[in-house]
Design brief:
Butyryl-CoA Dehydrogenase, subunit A, domain 2; 14% strand
Length: 400
Protein backbone atom coordinates (compact mmCIF):
# COMPACT_ATOMS: atom_id res chain seq x y z
CA UNK A 1 0.00 0.00 0.00
CA UNK A 2 1.33 3.43 -0.89
CA UNK A 3 0.86 6.54 1.24
CA UNK A 4 -1.94 7.60 -1.11
CA UNK A 5 -3.75 4.32 -0.50
CA UNK A 6 -3.40 4.89 3.23
CA UNK A 7 -4.79 8.44 2.93
CA UNK A 8 -7.68 6.96 0.98
CA UNK A 9 -8.22 4.35 3.72
CA UNK A 10 -8.49 7.17 6.26
CA UNK A 11 -11.14 8.94 4.17
CA UNK A 12 -13.11 5.70 3.79
CA UNK A 13 -12.91 5.06 7.54
CA UNK A 14 -14.20 8.53 8.33
CA UNK A 15 -17.03 8.16 5.83
CA UNK A 16 -18.10 4.74 7.13
CA UNK A 17 -17.93 5.82 10.75
CA UNK A 18 -20.36 8.65 9.93
CA UNK A 19 -22.65 6.78 7.50
CA UNK A 20 -22.75 3.08 8.44
CA UNK A 21 -23.36 0.78 11.39
CA UNK A 22 -20.33 -1.07 12.77
CA UNK A 23 -20.44 -4.88 12.52
CA UNK A 24 -19.95 -5.05 16.30
CA UNK A 25 -23.44 -3.53 16.69
CA UNK A 26 -26.51 -5.86 16.61
CA UNK A 27 -27.95 -6.54 13.13
CA UNK A 28 -30.55 -4.07 11.86
CA UNK A 29 -34.11 -5.38 11.63
CA UNK A 30 -34.83 -3.71 8.30
CA UNK A 31 -37.68 -4.43 5.90
CA UNK A 32 -36.83 -4.64 2.20
CA UNK A 33 -38.30 -1.17 1.66
CA UNK A 34 -35.99 0.26 4.31
CA UNK A 35 -33.01 -1.57 2.80
CA UNK A 36 -33.69 -0.14 -0.67
CA UNK A 37 -34.04 3.40 0.73
CA UNK A 38 -30.90 2.89 2.87
CA UNK A 39 -28.97 1.57 -0.13
CA UNK A 40 -29.89 4.61 -2.25
CA UNK A 41 -29.02 6.97 0.61
CA UNK A 42 -25.66 5.30 1.31
CA UNK A 43 -24.48 5.33 -2.31
CA UNK A 44 -25.66 8.92 -2.87
CA UNK A 45 -23.65 10.03 0.16
CA UNK A 46 -20.68 7.92 -0.99
CA UNK A 47 -20.61 9.69 -4.36
CA UNK A 48 -21.04 13.10 -2.71
CA UNK A 49 -17.99 12.29 -0.57
CA UNK A 50 -15.94 11.48 -3.72
CA UNK A 51 -15.86 7.74 -2.99
CA UNK A 52 -18.47 6.30 -5.39
CA UNK A 53 -17.63 4.11 -8.42
CA UNK A 54 -13.98 3.90 -7.38
CA UNK A 55 -12.58 2.26 -10.55
CA UNK A 56 -14.97 3.89 -13.05
CA UNK A 57 -14.01 6.93 -15.17
CA UNK A 58 -14.41 10.37 -13.60
CA UNK A 59 -16.39 11.69 -16.61
CA UNK A 60 -19.04 9.01 -15.94
CA UNK A 61 -19.44 9.55 -12.21
CA UNK A 62 -16.56 7.42 -10.91
CA UNK A 63 -13.22 8.24 -9.27
CA UNK A 64 -10.87 6.89 -11.98
CA UNK A 65 -8.74 5.02 -9.40
CA UNK A 66 -7.02 1.63 -9.70
CA UNK A 67 -8.24 -1.63 -8.16
CA UNK A 68 -5.90 -1.23 -5.14
CA UNK A 69 -8.22 1.53 -3.90
CA UNK A 70 -11.22 -0.73 -4.36
CA UNK A 71 -9.46 -3.39 -2.28
CA UNK A 72 -8.89 -0.81 0.50
CA UNK A 73 -12.55 0.23 0.37
CA UNK A 74 -13.73 -3.40 0.45
CA UNK A 75 -11.49 -4.18 3.43
CA UNK A 76 -12.86 -1.24 5.42
CA UNK A 77 -16.46 -1.93 4.36
CA UNK A 78 -16.26 -5.48 5.74
CA UNK A 79 -16.25 -3.95 9.26
CA UNK A 80 -19.68 -2.37 8.73
CA UNK A 81 -23.28 -3.37 8.11
CA UNK A 82 -24.46 -1.56 4.99
CA UNK A 83 -27.60 -2.43 2.98
CA UNK A 84 -25.78 -3.19 -0.28
CA UNK A 85 -27.92 -6.12 -1.47
CA UNK A 86 -30.59 -4.08 -3.33
CA UNK A 87 -27.87 -2.75 -5.67
CA UNK A 88 -25.81 -5.96 -5.93
CA UNK A 89 -26.92 -6.74 -9.52
CA UNK A 90 -27.06 -3.07 -10.50
CA UNK A 91 -23.47 -2.42 -9.40
CA UNK A 92 -22.02 -5.92 -9.87
CA UNK A 93 -23.38 -6.69 -13.34
CA UNK A 94 -25.29 -3.84 -15.05
CA UNK A 95 -22.79 -1.07 -14.32
CA UNK A 96 -19.75 -2.93 -15.79
CA UNK A 97 -21.82 -3.91 -18.84
CA UNK A 98 -22.82 -0.29 -19.52
CA UNK A 99 -19.22 0.77 -18.91
CA UNK A 100 -17.82 -1.84 -21.33
CA UNK A 101 -20.53 -2.03 -24.01
CA UNK A 102 -22.57 1.19 -23.69
CA UNK A 103 -22.37 3.97 -26.29
CA UNK A 104 -20.83 7.27 -25.06
CA UNK A 105 -24.40 8.67 -24.88
CA UNK A 106 -25.63 5.73 -22.80
CA UNK A 107 -22.65 6.01 -20.46
CA UNK A 108 -23.17 9.76 -20.12
CA UNK A 109 -26.89 9.35 -19.47
CA UNK A 110 -26.93 6.36 -17.10
CA UNK A 111 -23.58 5.55 -15.53
CA UNK A 112 -23.34 8.19 -12.80
CA UNK A 113 -26.98 7.59 -11.84
CA UNK A 114 -26.30 3.84 -11.44
CA UNK A 115 -23.22 4.54 -9.32
CA UNK A 116 -25.19 6.87 -7.04
CA UNK A 117 -28.16 4.45 -6.93
CA UNK A 118 -30.42 7.22 -8.24
CA UNK A 119 -31.44 4.38 -10.54
CA UNK A 120 -31.21 0.69 -9.59
CA UNK A 121 -31.05 -1.83 -12.44
CA UNK A 122 -31.92 -5.52 -12.75
CA UNK A 123 -30.95 -8.36 -15.06
CA UNK A 124 -33.68 -9.91 -17.22
CA UNK A 125 -32.41 -13.09 -18.86
CA UNK A 126 -34.35 -16.13 -17.59
CA UNK A 127 -37.68 -17.16 -19.06
CA UNK A 128 -40.09 -19.99 -18.20
CA UNK A 129 -38.62 -21.97 -21.15
CA UNK A 130 -35.01 -20.74 -20.97
CA UNK A 131 -32.84 -20.88 -17.84
CA UNK A 132 -29.62 -22.89 -18.10
CA UNK A 133 -29.96 -22.78 -21.87
CA UNK A 134 -30.71 -19.05 -21.83
CA UNK A 135 -29.66 -18.64 -25.49
CA UNK A 136 -32.86 -20.46 -26.49
CA UNK A 137 -35.03 -17.62 -25.09
CA UNK A 138 -38.10 -16.51 -27.00
CA UNK A 139 -38.95 -12.93 -25.91
CA UNK A 140 -39.07 -11.05 -29.24
CA UNK A 141 -38.17 -7.53 -30.28
CA UNK A 142 -39.29 -6.31 -33.69
CA UNK A 143 -38.00 -3.09 -35.25
CA UNK A 144 -40.52 -0.35 -36.04
CA UNK A 145 -38.75 2.72 -37.43
CA UNK A 146 -36.59 4.23 -34.71
CA UNK A 147 -38.17 1.98 -32.10
CA UNK A 148 -38.25 -1.69 -31.12
CA UNK A 149 -41.41 -3.41 -29.87
CA UNK A 150 -40.81 -6.06 -27.19
CA UNK A 151 -43.15 -8.95 -26.33
CA UNK A 152 -42.53 -11.88 -24.00
CA UNK A 153 -42.12 -13.02 -20.42
CA UNK A 154 -39.13 -13.03 -18.09
CA UNK A 155 -38.98 -14.83 -14.75
CA UNK A 156 -36.85 -14.96 -11.55
CA UNK A 157 -36.02 -11.28 -12.06
CA UNK A 158 -34.42 -10.35 -8.73
CA UNK A 159 -35.45 -6.93 -7.46
CA UNK A 160 -37.54 -5.87 -10.50
CA UNK A 161 -40.27 -4.62 -8.11
CA UNK A 162 -38.01 -1.84 -6.78
CA UNK A 163 -35.74 -1.37 -9.82
CA UNK A 164 -35.90 1.52 -12.29
CA UNK A 165 -34.34 -0.13 -15.36
CA UNK A 166 -33.66 -3.65 -16.65
CA UNK A 167 -31.09 -5.04 -19.07
CA UNK A 168 -33.23 -7.36 -21.17
CA UNK A 169 -31.99 -10.00 -23.61
CA UNK A 170 -34.39 -10.58 -26.49
CA UNK A 171 -34.51 -12.33 -29.85
CA UNK A 172 -34.22 -9.89 -32.74
CA UNK A 173 -33.56 -12.41 -35.52
CA UNK A 174 -35.21 -15.84 -35.28
CA UNK A 175 -33.71 -16.93 -38.62
CA UNK A 176 -30.22 -17.03 -37.05
CA UNK A 177 -28.87 -19.88 -34.87
CA UNK A 178 -29.89 -19.36 -31.23
CA UNK A 179 -26.74 -17.58 -30.02
CA UNK A 180 -26.59 -15.18 -32.96
CA UNK A 181 -30.07 -13.66 -33.17
CA UNK A 182 -30.03 -12.04 -29.71
CA UNK A 183 -29.75 -8.39 -28.69
CA UNK A 184 -29.71 -6.57 -25.36
CA UNK A 185 -31.86 -3.55 -24.54
CA UNK A 186 -32.15 -1.05 -21.73
CA UNK A 187 -35.80 -1.06 -20.63
CA UNK A 188 -37.27 1.63 -18.39
CA UNK A 189 -39.48 -0.45 -16.07
CA UNK A 190 -42.06 2.34 -15.76
CA UNK A 191 -42.93 2.11 -19.49
CA UNK A 192 -46.46 1.11 -20.53
CA UNK A 193 -46.67 -2.67 -21.14
CA UNK A 194 -44.24 -3.65 -18.35
CA UNK A 195 -46.11 -5.74 -15.78
CA UNK A 196 -44.07 -6.83 -12.72
CA UNK A 197 -45.54 -9.58 -10.54
CA UNK A 198 -43.65 -10.63 -7.39
CA UNK A 199 -43.26 -14.37 -6.66
CA UNK A 200 -43.55 -15.74 -3.12
CA UNK A 201 -40.51 -17.75 -1.95
CA UNK A 202 -40.34 -20.58 0.63
CA UNK A 203 -38.56 -18.17 3.00
CA UNK A 204 -41.68 -15.98 3.01
CA UNK A 205 -39.98 -13.14 1.10
CA UNK A 206 -40.65 -11.96 -2.47
CA UNK A 207 -37.31 -11.05 -4.01
CA UNK A 208 -38.08 -12.42 -7.48
CA UNK A 209 -40.61 -11.44 -10.06
CA UNK A 210 -42.26 -12.53 -13.23
CA UNK A 211 -42.07 -9.66 -15.72
CA UNK A 212 -44.52 -9.58 -18.61
CA UNK A 213 -43.57 -7.36 -21.55
CA UNK A 214 -46.49 -6.51 -23.84
CA UNK A 215 -45.87 -4.19 -26.82
CA UNK A 216 -43.18 -2.34 -24.85
CA UNK A 217 -41.66 0.33 -27.10
CA UNK A 218 -38.02 1.30 -26.62
CA UNK A 219 -35.84 3.55 -28.78
CA UNK A 220 -33.09 2.16 -31.02
CA UNK A 221 -30.70 4.11 -28.77
CA UNK A 222 -31.54 1.61 -25.98
CA UNK A 223 -29.67 -1.16 -27.80
CA UNK A 224 -26.50 -2.19 -25.91
CA UNK A 225 -23.51 -3.60 -27.80
CA UNK A 226 -25.20 -3.56 -31.23
CA UNK A 227 -27.89 -5.59 -32.96
CA UNK A 228 -27.22 -9.36 -32.83
CA UNK A 229 -24.50 -8.91 -30.18
CA UNK A 230 -26.77 -9.82 -27.25
CA UNK A 231 -25.10 -13.16 -26.55
CA UNK A 232 -21.60 -11.65 -26.23
CA UNK A 233 -22.92 -8.99 -23.85
CA UNK A 234 -24.90 -11.60 -21.88
CA UNK A 235 -21.85 -13.86 -21.50
CA UNK A 236 -19.80 -10.91 -20.22
CA UNK A 237 -22.59 -10.09 -17.78
CA UNK A 238 -22.79 -13.68 -16.48
CA UNK A 239 -19.02 -13.64 -16.03
CA UNK A 240 -19.32 -10.48 -13.92
CA UNK A 241 -21.99 -12.26 -11.85
CA UNK A 242 -19.84 -15.35 -11.23
CA UNK A 243 -16.89 -13.07 -10.56
CA UNK A 244 -18.91 -11.01 -8.05
CA UNK A 245 -20.11 -14.14 -6.24
CA UNK A 246 -16.79 -16.00 -6.47
CA UNK A 247 -14.39 -13.13 -5.71
CA UNK A 248 -16.27 -12.21 -2.56
CA UNK A 249 -14.28 -14.96 -0.83
CA UNK A 250 -15.50 -16.29 2.47
CA UNK A 251 -17.97 -13.42 2.86
CA UNK A 252 -20.23 -15.27 0.43
CA UNK A 253 -21.47 -17.52 3.23
CA UNK A 254 -25.22 -17.72 3.67
CA UNK A 255 -26.47 -14.48 5.15
CA UNK A 256 -24.78 -13.80 8.46
CA UNK A 257 -23.60 -17.38 8.95
CA UNK A 258 -19.81 -17.23 8.91
CA UNK A 259 -17.49 -19.85 10.39
CA UNK A 260 -16.81 -17.64 13.42
CA UNK A 261 -20.53 -17.39 14.15
CA UNK A 262 -20.96 -21.16 13.84
CA UNK A 263 -18.09 -21.81 16.28
CA UNK A 264 -19.60 -19.29 18.70
CA UNK A 265 -23.01 -20.95 18.34
CA UNK A 266 -21.53 -24.43 18.95
CA UNK A 267 -19.84 -23.13 22.12
CA UNK A 268 -23.00 -21.36 23.29
CA UNK A 269 -25.06 -24.52 22.91
CA UNK A 270 -22.41 -26.78 24.51
CA UNK A 271 -21.80 -28.62 21.20
CA UNK A 272 -18.18 -27.62 20.61
CA UNK A 273 -16.75 -30.87 21.99
CA UNK A 274 -19.07 -33.05 19.87
CA UNK A 275 -16.64 -34.83 17.46
CA UNK A 276 -19.15 -34.82 14.57
CA UNK A 277 -19.72 -31.06 14.90
CA UNK A 278 -15.96 -30.45 15.25
CA UNK A 279 -15.29 -32.49 12.10
CA UNK A 280 -17.95 -30.54 10.16
CA UNK A 281 -16.56 -27.20 11.42
CA UNK A 282 -13.05 -28.22 10.30
CA UNK A 283 -14.40 -29.25 6.86
CA UNK A 284 -16.20 -25.93 6.52
CA UNK A 285 -13.12 -24.00 7.62
CA UNK A 286 -11.02 -25.75 4.96
CA UNK A 287 -13.56 -24.99 2.21
CA UNK A 288 -13.78 -21.40 3.40
CA UNK A 289 -10.00 -20.98 3.23
CA UNK A 290 -10.00 -22.47 -0.27
CA UNK A 291 -12.70 -19.99 -1.24
CA UNK A 292 -10.60 -17.10 0.09
CA UNK A 293 -7.63 -18.24 -2.04
CA UNK A 294 -9.75 -18.72 -5.17
CA UNK A 295 -11.19 -15.23 -4.58
CA UNK A 296 -7.66 -13.79 -4.29
CA UNK A 297 -6.63 -15.54 -7.52
CA UNK A 298 -9.61 -14.14 -9.39
CA UNK A 299 -9.04 -10.62 -8.09
CA UNK A 300 -5.35 -10.80 -9.03
CA UNK A 301 -6.27 -11.99 -12.54
CA UNK A 302 -8.69 -9.07 -12.86
CA UNK A 303 -6.12 -6.59 -11.56
CA UNK A 304 -3.63 -7.87 -14.14
CA UNK A 305 -6.26 -7.30 -16.84
CA UNK A 306 -6.85 -11.03 -17.45
CA UNK A 307 -10.37 -12.42 -17.75
CA UNK A 308 -10.93 -14.93 -14.93
CA UNK A 309 -12.53 -17.45 -17.37
CA UNK A 310 -13.34 -20.86 -15.88
CA UNK A 311 -11.87 -19.79 -12.51
CA UNK A 312 -15.05 -17.77 -11.98
CA UNK A 313 -17.06 -21.00 -12.41
CA UNK A 314 -14.84 -22.83 -9.90
CA UNK A 315 -15.33 -20.00 -7.40
CA UNK A 316 -19.07 -19.83 -8.02
CA UNK A 317 -19.46 -23.60 -7.54
CA UNK A 318 -17.39 -23.59 -4.36
CA UNK A 319 -19.38 -20.64 -2.98
CA UNK A 320 -22.66 -22.48 -3.58
CA UNK A 321 -21.34 -25.61 -1.87
CA UNK A 322 -19.97 -23.55 1.00
CA UNK A 323 -23.34 -21.86 1.51
CA UNK A 324 -25.12 -25.22 1.62
CA UNK A 325 -22.54 -26.76 3.98
CA UNK A 326 -22.76 -23.75 6.34
CA UNK A 327 -26.56 -23.87 6.38
CA UNK A 328 -26.61 -27.63 7.09
CA UNK A 329 -24.10 -27.24 9.90
CA UNK A 330 -25.98 -24.28 11.38
CA UNK A 331 -29.20 -26.27 11.70
CA UNK A 332 -27.28 -29.29 13.05
CA UNK A 333 -25.76 -27.13 15.80
CA UNK A 334 -29.05 -25.40 16.60
CA UNK A 335 -30.85 -28.76 16.83
CA UNK A 336 -34.57 -28.63 17.55
CA UNK A 337 -34.37 -24.92 18.40
CA UNK A 338 -33.34 -24.30 14.79
CA UNK A 339 -36.68 -25.67 13.70
CA UNK A 340 -38.99 -24.39 16.46
CA UNK A 341 -37.71 -21.36 18.29
CA UNK A 342 -39.05 -19.17 21.07
CA UNK A 343 -40.88 -16.14 19.70
CA UNK A 344 -38.71 -13.98 21.95
CA UNK A 345 -35.58 -15.26 20.13
CA UNK A 346 -35.12 -12.56 17.46
CA UNK A 347 -32.42 -14.54 15.63
CA UNK A 348 -34.27 -17.85 15.98
CA UNK A 349 -35.38 -18.09 12.34
CA UNK A 350 -31.90 -17.64 10.86
CA UNK A 351 -30.96 -21.35 10.86
CA UNK A 352 -34.17 -22.49 9.20
CA UNK A 353 -33.92 -19.58 6.71
CA UNK A 354 -30.38 -20.64 5.82
CA UNK A 355 -31.54 -24.17 5.00
CA UNK A 356 -34.39 -22.92 2.81
CA UNK A 357 -32.49 -20.13 1.03
CA UNK A 358 -28.99 -21.60 0.53
CA UNK A 359 -29.93 -23.97 -2.35
CA UNK A 360 -30.76 -20.84 -4.39
CA UNK A 361 -27.06 -20.03 -4.53
CA UNK A 362 -26.51 -23.26 -6.45
CA UNK A 363 -29.07 -22.11 -9.05
CA UNK A 364 -28.59 -18.32 -9.45
CA UNK A 365 -26.05 -17.25 -12.08
CA UNK A 366 -25.92 -20.78 -13.57
CA UNK A 367 -26.58 -23.98 -11.63
CA UNK A 368 -23.90 -26.17 -10.04
CA UNK A 369 -24.37 -28.67 -12.88
CA UNK A 370 -23.80 -25.95 -15.48
CA UNK A 371 -20.63 -24.78 -13.67
CA UNK A 372 -19.41 -28.39 -13.62
CA UNK A 373 -20.04 -28.62 -17.38
CA UNK A 374 -17.95 -25.47 -17.92
CA UNK A 375 -15.14 -26.78 -15.69
CA UNK A 376 -15.30 -30.18 -17.43
CA UNK A 377 -15.01 -28.66 -20.88
CA UNK A 378 -12.67 -25.71 -20.29
CA UNK A 379 -10.43 -26.99 -17.50
CA UNK A 380 -10.44 -30.77 -17.87
CA UNK A 381 -10.71 -30.72 -21.68
CA UNK A 382 -13.68 -33.10 -21.78
CA UNK A 383 -15.74 -33.24 -24.99
CA UNK A 384 -18.44 -30.58 -25.44
CA UNK A 385 -22.05 -31.44 -24.73
CA UNK A 386 -23.67 -32.78 -27.93
CA UNK A 387 -26.18 -30.41 -29.58
CA UNK A 388 -28.15 -32.04 -32.39
CA UNK A 389 -29.49 -28.60 -33.50
CA UNK A 390 -26.15 -26.79 -33.58
CA UNK A 391 -26.02 -24.16 -36.33
CA UNK A 392 -29.72 -24.45 -37.19
CA UNK A 393 -31.94 -21.34 -37.22
CA UNK A 394 -33.61 -20.78 -33.84
CA UNK A 395 -37.07 -20.89 -35.45
CA UNK A 396 -36.38 -24.41 -36.81
CA UNK A 397 -35.50 -25.87 -33.38
CA UNK A 398 -38.42 -27.64 -31.65
CA UNK A 399 -39.47 -26.16 -28.28
CA UNK A 400 -41.96 -27.35 -25.72
C1 LIG B 1 -31.56 -16.61 -6.08
C2 LIG B 1 -31.81 -16.54 -7.57
C3 LIG B 1 -31.75 -15.32 -8.21
C4 LIG B 1 -31.98 -15.24 -9.59
N1 LIG B 1 -31.97 -14.02 -10.18
C5 LIG B 1 -32.19 -13.91 -11.52
C6 LIG B 1 -32.20 -12.62 -12.15
O1 LIG B 1 -32.07 -11.58 -11.49
N2 LIG B 1 -32.40 -12.56 -13.48
C7 LIG B 1 -32.58 -13.68 -14.25
O2 LIG B 1 -32.71 -13.55 -15.46
N3 LIG B 1 -32.60 -14.92 -13.68
C8 LIG B 1 -32.40 -15.06 -12.33
N4 LIG B 1 -32.42 -16.29 -11.72
C9 LIG B 1 -32.72 -17.47 -12.55
C10 LIG B 1 -31.51 -18.37 -12.77
O3 LIG B 1 -30.58 -17.78 -13.64
C11 LIG B 1 -32.05 -19.70 -13.35
O4 LIG B 1 -32.91 -20.25 -12.36
C12 LIG B 1 -30.95 -20.67 -13.67
O5 LIG B 1 -30.20 -20.23 -14.77
C13 LIG B 1 -31.49 -22.10 -13.95
O6 LIG B 1 -32.51 -22.06 -14.89
P1 LIG B 1 -33.90 -22.80 -14.62
O7 LIG B 1 -34.39 -22.39 -13.27
O8 LIG B 1 -34.79 -22.54 -15.78
O9 LIG B 1 -33.55 -24.35 -14.54
P2 LIG B 1 -33.33 -25.35 -15.77
O10 LIG B 1 -32.39 -24.75 -16.74
O11 LIG B 1 -34.65 -25.78 -16.26
O12 LIG B 1 -32.59 -26.55 -15.05
C14 LIG B 1 -33.28 -27.56 -14.31
C15 LIG B 1 -32.27 -28.56 -13.80
O13 LIG B 1 -31.60 -29.19 -14.92
C16 LIG B 1 -30.20 -29.07 -14.81
N5 LIG B 1 -29.61 -28.84 -16.13
C17 LIG B 1 -30.03 -27.99 -17.10
N6 LIG B 1 -29.22 -28.04 -18.17
C18 LIG B 1 -28.23 -28.94 -17.87
C19 LIG B 1 -27.09 -29.40 -18.57
N7 LIG B 1 -26.81 -28.97 -19.79
N8 LIG B 1 -26.29 -30.32 -17.95
C20 LIG B 1 -26.58 -30.77 -16.70
N9 LIG B 1 -27.66 -30.36 -15.98
C21 LIG B 1 -28.47 -29.44 -16.56
C22 LIG B 1 -29.97 -27.81 -13.94
O14 LIG B 1 -28.73 -27.86 -13.27
C23 LIG B 1 -31.15 -27.92 -12.96
O15 LIG B 1 -30.82 -28.78 -11.90
C24 LIG B 1 -32.23 -16.42 -10.35
C25 LIG B 1 -32.29 -17.64 -9.70
C26 LIG B 1 -32.10 -17.73 -8.33
C27 LIG B 1 -32.18 -19.06 -7.64
Amino acid sequence: MTATHEEFRQRVREFLAANAVARTEPPLEWTEEMQVAGCRRFHGALSDAGLGGITYPVEYGGQGLDKGYLEVYTQELSNYRVPLVPAAISHGMCLPVINDFGTPEQREHYQARIIRCDDIWCQMFSEPGAGSDVASLSTRAVRDGDEWVINGQKVWTSGAHYCDYGLVVVRTDPTQPKHRGLSMFIVDLSLPGVDIRPLRQPTGGSNFNEVYLTDVRVGHDCLVGGEGEGWNVAVAMLMYERFAIGASGSQAMTGRTGIAQLIEEAQRRGRSSDPVIRDALAGLYIRERIQTFIGMRIREAAEAGRSPGAEASIAKLNTAMLARQAADLGIAIAGLQGQAWYCTDKDGSQWANGVVSSPGMGIAGGTNEVQRNIIGERVLGLPKEPDPYKGQPWEAVPRS
